[in-house]
Write a structure and sequence with these properties.
Length: 128
């Protein structure tokens, strides 16, 4: 398994440890490294570590709570006071079993609606 190792992701993982229960730290750290593994280094530069910590924890918890055979599509505008992180953009999150073309279909629908995608993180997890 080739996990990302860079200062930004290392900082995210370290700060996550301060917000999580002790029994979540190890698995959440692995999740974080996988979650950010496809993000190019240049896209990580200048990102707000605290916001990425909140986003990663939010995705970690959503992923853990989802039964393996269900699809969840959520749209949100996270606010720091309510969600522990914030974004200047609307967040579209898809957690799904293996469904070819689901990401492309959503991207096309957004584009057809005249919306711009600012960041895309498409990570595939193998689950046992």
């Amino acid at each position: 398994m080739n996990l990302v190792s860079n200062t930004h992701v290392d900082d995210v993982v370290e700060r996550m440890q301060q917000r999580l229960a002790e029994d979540e730290v190890e698995l959440a750290g692995h999740f974080a490294r996988l979650f950010w593994s496809k993000t190019p280094q240049e896209d990580l530069q200048g990102r707000n570590v605290e916001h990425d910590v909140g986003a990663t924890i939010d995705n970690w918890r959503a992923y853990r709570q989802l039964p393996a055979d269900q699809l969840v599509l959520s749209v949100s505008n996270p606010q720091h006071a309510q969600d522990g992180w914030q974004s200047a953009y609307t967040i579209v999150r898809i957690i799904a079993p293996d469904m070819p073309f689901v990401v492309d279909s959503v991207l096309m629908a957004l584009s057809h609606g005249g919306l711009t995608t600012h960041t895309l993180s498409n990570v595939v997890f193998s689950v046992t």
